[in-house]
């Protein structure tokens, strides 16, 4: 298997150029204006699976954007690995903060990526990490080193809630049957501190609308006498946390997993430098739920954040208006054993209950996802740990992170499969932000590490 | 003077068409993209003053948009009336709520305007009301009925705070010297309930910016652990009112005029139907400072309203982001004897003081204006009351309203003149809102009433 290093050295430029072509297409699933680009990206991904040597490839229709599928079955008695990824990306705004255009990829050096990083929307999340798998599969098939069966499914709606995927899994249980699911859509602690994500938070995402008067009003004539929906929305949102920064939605914490003091002590051993953390974000203090450390706040505790707010006059200068409506997008990150649908219901009930007389409130659920925890004793985790040891010369750290990949819980429900999360990005790669990037070193290290997972997983299963 | 009715009957169509041409130009002073239109409007207004018979007209340069000036001096021993108005308009957004384009005026009938109303941005505020004066002057000069001297100044920055006007007044004290200032930039209670505005609230307007992390972050990875500037801004804004809806800015109420119970009882006699008010706005309850009626809340009490708020992802769908920055535009309406500069300082001090650790706060003052109260015993008020009695057959009601015309206080400071506010619009005319309109009846009634003010003011001064 040392041939992988040689193979990467030989094909490095091509690997980068292929990814760059993929990153040029603005496959923004959240905005219907880009639907053609999303579909074009699906076609490019299918072609890349063909080129990698898959026997069968297919663009599978769904109610939304299609799922790209490919497989290489070498022996039905051998284990089957199902790779999941997504070819859609987050919207790039605010555009003005990008130092280079989000869909014109360029390689630039950074402090953490001295060998250069590809700057583009989707470079890390998830086109870059998804494409590591395509190139690892190409290596294994081309060199006759594929030790087991592989199936690949790359979806196009991950950034908007994977709405069509539950149906797709239900309708293709047989086709998607596998022994383990492998995903690279998370990060690792640092290039010299490999880690495997063992816990993911769930998600409940809602949009709220507060309506006051039936039209925009002159604030001089009406100000002080009518419910201003922005003032009211601010008051309502402010009341969603108490003075200890605990969420006030009734019954919100009822099912939250109690993490034992022993476990918390174990987690606290992971390297974490609060000063570095604050410095990197240029904040003079952190902020969060009383009684928990920063690492706990973003991993084992649920949260409620406003992701967007708007209302009234937001142009240049001053306009003395009282808006008729105000809006916010609010997401809650959930931990085991909170159920996103239940939490969404609790939120709606609570938000309607706290609305003062004089305004009307509408809450629209966007999408949700169940929290997930991986067992460190599983063969999948062990195979992944051995793969990292081989290529990083270090034992990876098990890590619970705050992000959500709702599909991980769905896979277990519908397909009965466990998922291994081998992420090669860094927290500082600015996914979902302007100037998203993915280290060239990380990209190639992923391609190098993945085939070892196939090897060890097959060996451990034999 | 009955000739005014005949004159209007003869020239009605022309009066309407001329105003419509003026309304077609988007003279939006808040948006630099429209600067040519603002300047073009100034030229049209100057031409209209020439056509009306002014001896001298001039487009006077300022640091910002010019002031259009015109005059007709018939005898220096006679009184001089200075007419003030503005030719700039508010931005028209939200555009999608207009039933006809804001700069394509159309006349449509409404419940309150059975004779039709002109729908266009600026129709009432202030092009329509300003143009009543131009036409009234045309009538008086043409028919040799002008009883005194008249000066007219129409500015182009009223909707953005009249920034250049203080300098302009200082530099042209002699030219602008007068015995009374006459403005139509307010409303009246109803077409059968004429009223004269005797009190105006002042204004302090600020823009606030809250910065958390130095870049947009993924809410899964960072949510719950870092200060989310939108959540923080919401909490800060919510804290600006207490549970009685009193403003919590320290020292905010210290100089507020105490209105006596007798005066409050007098004001309470003005016709006001709370059910109608709520019905017109489609709200099931009003909202405001405890201990005051709705009419008091918008007239004799100061207020704090958010006029606009924005931050994070506001596009379609869901984006799980923690924004780096959140913004709001906040205005405070002031009453005698609050000073706008002082209030702005108090606000900045307070807002900075309540910012939690972890965020940075920036407050930018936009513009302000002093509150103003007119004396009912003045000759100006009496002349105006007599004019309304003549054309409406009713004694007008003195009314304090919530809007601000900062220049009114400025006039008194710099020119030493009192102002009479003869407004002919209705509260329901939707100024500053989509579908602004101005009743054709109101427009013509204004033209009819104004010459009587000249007549009675001259007589009372002789």
From TrEMBL, chains A, B:
Instruction: Tell me the InterPro entries matching this sequence.
Output: Bact_exopeptidase_dim_dom, Cyt/Met_Dipeptidase, Peptidase_M20, Peptidase_M20_dimer
- Which EC numbers characterise this protein's activity in its record? 3.4.13.-
Q: Name one Pfam family in it.
A: Peptidase_M20
> Any idea which UniProt keywords this protein has?
Dipeptidase, Hydrolase, Metal-binding, Protease
Which residues does the UniProt record annotate as the domain Peptidase M20 dimerisation? Answer: 199-358
What are this entry's molecular-function GO terms?
Answer: dipeptidase activity
Q: Does the keyword Transferase apply?
A: no
Check the record and name the CDD domains matching this protein: M20_dipept_like
Name of the molecule in the record: Dipeptidase
